[in-house]
């Protein structure tokens, strides 16, 4: 007789004892390939919908070029990176950009309150570089194992096929790190006026590496030269009543009349390492790097000057991945970046096919020599052997035939890694509430009013106990924030303030006392300091 299990398991029936964290070497990573629970979860998630994208289904794209300034903060860019695309001037690198919404289906309105995807493919002379991010510089979660849960909560109810406010807030109530993103999303910043007047960000933390093998942590940002403009809920509803694709129309109309959209490409830099002096972990993508400490440094510009000639071939089949980097740009141990690097390319192989990189929209530019030993697979239509011996699709060859390895760089970047393998909850969490409160206080009055109205309206549709917990969270971000939402939603603020701490969570504004190491033997946990 089958077990009537009341706890979470994998599809193999194994108990899931920690659904909050990937297994990493130490608290800050890196993640390991034997993350079976995560790999099973994320690869199943990648295959939940066909043929449109599971997320970012509604989108528009355009072609353009990138030009590097050759400097970063007044110094030669080569001081920080050996990536030619960032340190060589006088080169116009071809690009393709896809803008999108996240949660809606392919034909959903572009006025939806939703993060906007900002995916950029640089077709450099050294191969493709994909920078895949959004418009808000941060994200809801900091561990990739939570991504399927987050999207499931934000997508329509599997029973009613309706997006329900209570599902969204039920997830947020259990993840205080999401409060920062939610504060942005429920404000007018959650509905950009169009794609041209919208910021972009890589969101994740990467590394720049120079010719000496020295690395700096880096965040990438796009600043629109057209300025930034957002919509209130009422303004968005008025536009939606006339045009559900207004942002796509605006983008293509601007290009057609020669008003080419332009963005300045900027970086924030930080010394490589844990940076323990900061109140937040710079690898935590639910946090912004304060710009007064880490200013935006211009490195180049992007111009979009050509609309696609065919939507399906160029926009729908365009495929991006966070693992697509050029030499001089490297991974950090950002847990979202490591998880996305598996998930994005895995999704493209499933959605478009194993040979998606042979499609012209995704292939490197003709001037970039590329040659692999990969063969066959569904829809293969050429062999990218690059002039090598077609008989030899392996390496090395004793006979000296076929492809050889590329020359080694003079000084490779090597990251020391030490720690106990396990599932860790982060210790630096005090800013989960602080940055959300700071963002609330820096909004203009009209932005705060729209934010309060949007959240209050949502909470009226939520169960009373959930609405109380959300107000509790918001009050700890900023007392005025929580009070105004409570007033707007008709919630007893004193009753909300009296709620106990969430089980297993530190008090708002406090860090965890030590690493939370949730698997392994008691001896291993003790050795890890847990």
Automatic annotation (TrEMBL):
The organism's place on the tree of life at top rank: Bacteria
Domain Catalase core: 9-403
SUPFAM superfamilies to which the protein is assigned, alphabetical: Heme-dependent catalase-like (SSF56634)
SMART domains in the record: Catalase
A Gene Ontology BP annotation from the UniProt entry: hydrogen peroxide catabolic process
Cofactor(s) this protein requires: heme
CDD domains reported for this sequence: catalase_clade_1 (cd08154)
Record key words, sorted: Heme, Hydrogen peroxide, Iron, Metal-binding, Oxidoreductase, Peroxidase
Active site per database record: 56, 134
Biased composition (Polar residues): 7-23
Function: Decomposes hydrogen peroxide into water and oxygen; serves to protect cells from the toxic effects of hydrogen peroxide.
Entry's family note: Belongs to the catalase family.
Name by which UniProt lists this protein: Catalase
């Amino acid at each position: 007789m089958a077990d009537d299990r009341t706890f979470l398991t994998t599809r193999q029936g194994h108990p899931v004892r920690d659904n909050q964290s990937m297994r990493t070497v130490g608290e800050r990573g890196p993640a390991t390939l034997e993350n079976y629970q995560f790999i099973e979860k994320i690869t199943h998630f990648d295959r939940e919908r066909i043929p449109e994208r599971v997320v970012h289904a509604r989108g528009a794209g355009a072609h353009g070029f990138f030009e590097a300034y050759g400097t970063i903060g007044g110094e030669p860019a080569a001081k920080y990176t050996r990536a030619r695309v960032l340190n060589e001037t006088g080169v116009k690198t071809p690009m393709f950009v896809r803008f999108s919404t996240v949660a809606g289906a392919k034909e959903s309105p572009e006025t939806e309150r939703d993060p906007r995807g900002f995916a950029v493919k640089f077709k450099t002379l050294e191969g493709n570089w994909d920078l895949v991010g959004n418009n808000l510089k941060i994200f809801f979660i900091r561990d990739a194992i939570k991504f399927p849960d987050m999207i499931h909560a934000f997508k329509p109810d599997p029973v009613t096929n309706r997006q329900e406010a209570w599902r969204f807030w039920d997830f947020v109530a259990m993840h205080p790190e999401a409060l920062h993103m939610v504060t942005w999303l429920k404000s007018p910043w959650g509905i950009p006026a169009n794609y041209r007047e919208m910021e972009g960000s890589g969101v994740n933390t990467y590394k720049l590496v120079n010719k000496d093998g020295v690395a700096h942590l880096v965040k990438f940002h796009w600043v629109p030269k057209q300025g930034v403009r957002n919509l209130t809920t009422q303004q968005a509803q008025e536009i939606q009543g006339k045009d559900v694709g207004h942002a796509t129309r605006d983008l293509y109309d601007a290009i057609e009349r020669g008003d080419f959209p332009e963005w300045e490409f900027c970086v924030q830099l930080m010394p490589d390492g844990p940076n323990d002096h900061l109140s937040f972990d710079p690898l935590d993508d639910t946090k912004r790097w304060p710009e007064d400490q880490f200013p935006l440094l211009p490195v180049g510009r992007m111009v979009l000057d050509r609309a696609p000639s065919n939507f399906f071939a160029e926009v729908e089949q365009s495929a991006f991945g966070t693992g697509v980097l050029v030499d001089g740009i490297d991974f950090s141990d950002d847990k979202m970046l490591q998880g996305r690097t598996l998930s994005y390319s895995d999704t493209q192989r499933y959605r478009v096919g194993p040979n998606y990189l042979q499609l012209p929209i995704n292939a490197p530019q003709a001037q970039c020599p590329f040659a692999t030993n990969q063969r066959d697979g569904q829809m293969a239509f050429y062999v990218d052997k690059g002039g090598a011996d077609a008989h030899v699709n392996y390496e090395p060859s004793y006979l000296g035939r076929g492809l050889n390895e590329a020359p080694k760089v003079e000084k490779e970047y090597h990251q020391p890694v030490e720690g106990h393998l396990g599932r860790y909850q982060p210790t630096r969490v005090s800013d989960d509430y602080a940055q959300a409160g700071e963002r609330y206080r820096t909004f203009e009055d009209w932005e705060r009013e729209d934010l309060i109205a949007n959240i209050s309206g949502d909470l009226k549709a939520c169960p009373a106990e959930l609405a109380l917990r959300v107000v509790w969270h918001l009050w700890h971000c900023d007392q005025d924030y929580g009070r105004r939402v409570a007033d707007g939603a008709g919630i007893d603020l004193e009753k909300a303030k009296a709620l106990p701490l969430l089980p297993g969570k530190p008090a708002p504004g406090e860090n965890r006392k030590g690493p939370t190491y949730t698997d392994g033997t008691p001896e291993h946990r003790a050795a890890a300091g847990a």
